[in-house]
Design goal:
The chain has 9 helices and 17 strands. With about 300 residues, the chain is α/β, with parallel strands linked by helices. It has 2 domains: about 160 residues, Quinone Oxidoreductase, Chain A, domain 1, CATH 3.90.180; about 120 residues, 3-Layer(aba) Sandwich (Rossmann fold), CATH 3.40.50. This is NADP-dependent oxidoreductase.
Length: about 300
C-alpha cells in the first residue's frame, strides 16, 4: 500500500511516498480503508522527535492519528463492526509508527466510532483529536449551562470545536482570535476578542464580572495571562502549557475514547457541531499540509484525502 513516511526523525522535507506491507489486524482491531486523515500539529512535532522522551517510535514512521474511512476487514472477536461500516477515530497507539497517512491502517475498536452520517469524509477526519481535546478540556473545567467561558485560539481546529461544544452545553463563549477571524467566531456563536496586549481589559468590557472557565488551546502564557479574569485557577485548563499546573490549573493530554467520539458524532448529527476544513489536500501533499500547519494561521482544520 502507499503511505507517507519518514525513515528517521525529521521535518516535512523528510516525508516520502513509500510502498509498505498491508497492516496486520490484531484481535479487537479492524482494518480501515482510509478516505481522509486529519492533520494536527502533534504530527510534525512527533516526527521531529518532540515526543521521544515519552513515546517509543518505530521506522519507517507513518504519521497521523485522525482517520475517517471504511472497515475492510475485522480481527478476531469484533462484534462492533462489519466490513463496509464507515468509521472515524483518534487512533493513537502506545507507540508511534503506523498512522493514518496511508491507504490503509489498522486500529483497535476502542479508538473508533461510527462516522457521523451528516459529515463528509474530510469533516469527519477533522473531528477526533480536536473534538476529543475540546470536549475533555471543557469537562475538566466542569463547564455547564450558564457559565461564561474564555476560549483561547478559538478559530483554530481545537478552539472552533470547543466554542461549539461549550455553546451546546449552554455556556456563553468569548473567543480570542485575530480580527480577520471575528466573523467566523460569530458564526459559531462566540463573542470575539482580539488577543494581545490589553486582553484582560477587552474581556472585562464584555464580561465585567470575569469568566467562569478558561480554555487555553494556544500556550505562550495565555492561561496565566487570563488568571485575573477568574476567581481561581481551578477551572483553567491548558492543552499547550504544562506550566498551568504551577498556579493550580490543569494540563490536559487528550485520551482516545470511543464513548466520547459517539457523543461528538451525536452533536454533529444533531446539527450543533460542524468542522470548517480550510485546506483539503491529497495525501501526496502531506509536506505542504505540515508547512501550512506550522504557520499557525489555519482557520479550522487541514485534512489529507486518500
Amino acid at each position: 500500500m502507499k503511505a507517507m513516511a519518514l525513515q528517521q526523525y525529521g521535518t516535512e522535507d523528510s516525508l516520502r511516498e513509500v510502498e509498505l506491507p498491508e497492516p496486520k489486524v490484531a484481535p479487537a482491531e479492524v482494518l480501515i480503508g482510509v478516505r481522509a486523515a486529519g492533520v494536527n500539529p502533534v504530527d510534525w512535532k512527533l516526527a521531529a522527535g518532540g515526543l521521544d522522551p515519552v513515546m517509543e517510535a518505530g521506522f519507517p514512521m507513518v504519521p497521523g492519528w485522525d482517520v475517517a474511512g471504511v472497515v475492510e476487514a475485522v480481527g478476531f472477536d469484533v462484534p462492533e463492526y462489519r466490513v463496509g461500516d464507515e468509521v472515524f477515530g483518534y487512533i493513537r497507539k502506545d507507540w508511534a509508527q503506523n498512522g493514518a497517512y496511508a491507504e490503509r491502517v489498522s486500529a483497535s475498536v476502542r479508538l473508533l466510532a461510527p462516522k457521523p452520517a451528516s459529515m463528509s469524509w474530510t469533516q469527519a477526519a477533522g473531528v477526533p483529536l480536536a473534538g476529543l481535546t475540546a470536549l475533555q478540556a471543557l469537562r475538566r473545567a466542569e463547564v455547564r449551562e450558564g457559565d461564561t467561558v474564555l476560549v483561547h485560539a478559538a478559530a483554530g481546529g481545537v478552539g472552533s470545536l470547543g466554542v461549539q461544544i461549550a455553546r451546546a452545553l449552554g455556556a456563553r463563549v468569548l473567543g480570542t482570535a485575530s480580527e480577520r477571524n471575528h466573523d467566523f467566531l460569530r458564526s459559531l456563536g462566540a463573542e470575539p476578542v482580539t488577543y494581545g496586549e490589553g486582553l484582560v481589559r477587552r474581556v472585562r468590557a464584555l464580561a465585567p464580572a470575569g469568566v467562569d472557565a478558561v480554555m487555553d488551546f494556544v500556550g505562550g502564557g495565555a492561561a496565566e495571562q487570563s488568571l485575573p479574569l477568574t476567581e481561581g485557577a481551578g477551572r483553567v485548563v491548558s492543552v499547550a502549557d504544562a506550566e498551568v499546573e504551577r498556579f493550580g490549573g490543569h494540563y490536559l493530554w487528550v485520551r482516545p475514547s470511543s464513548e466520547d467520539l459517539v457523543e461528538l458524532a451525536g452533536m454533529a448529527d444533531a446539527g450543533v457541531l460542524t468542522v470548517h476544513v480550510e485546506h483539503e489536500l491529497p495525501l501526496a501533499e502531506a509536506a505542504r499540509a505540515w508547512r501550512l500547519s506550522k504557520e499557525g494561521r489555519t482557520r479550522g482544520k487541514i485534512v489529507l484525502t486518500v
